From TrEMBL:
Keywords: CBS domain. This is CBS domain-containing protein. PROSITE patterns: CBS. Transmembrane segments: none annotated. Residues 11-67, 86-139 form the CBS domain. The keyword ATP-binding does not apply.
Length: 139
């Protein structure tokens, strides 16, 4: 197994992002259409937060009995903004951070994705899935 491999070799660089002006319905569409679970929230090239699919599930607590599920989701999503739901105190890594260090961070924290930032610019995202795929390739 390679021991000094930078996270740049496994991170996703084709990043789907959101802005504060986007709706939570837009976020849900992006999660579902791209089969992803984490979306960085940006202002220009700078990351200001991270939204996870789990964040959306937490606010979708409404149990619709006689209503159309889509209608109920739309009502709930319109009650909140991305800024209210996203994680704001995020930890990021640089593209030169070693995969081992990223794995240690993700193992200790309660999140499953880290934005990759170089010179205050979002350049990628690395997830636990990326790490698992990397480990599979090593064996």
């Amino acid at each position: 197994m390679k021991k000094r491999t930078p996270v740049a070799s496994i991170m996703t660089t084709d990043i789907i992002t959101l802005n504060l002006t986007d709706s939570l319905e837009t976020a849900e569409e992006l999660f579902k259409n791209h089969t992803i679970r984490h979306i960085p929230v940006v202002s220009g090239d700078s990351i200001i937060g991270m939204l996870s699919y789990t964040d959306l599930l937490r606010i979708s607590f409404v149990d619709a009995v006689d209503e159309d599920e889509k209608d109920v989701e739309a009502i709930v999503y319109n009650m909140f903004t991305i800024e209210q739901v996203m994680a704001k105190n995020i930890i990021s890594v640089s593209s030169t951070t070693l995969i081992k260090e990223v794995a240690e961070l993700l193992a200790k924290k309660e999140f499953h994705a880290l934005p990759v930032v170089d010179d205050n610019k979002l350049v990628g995202i690395v997830t636990t899935t990326d790490l698992i795929n990397y480990l599979i390739q090593q064996y």
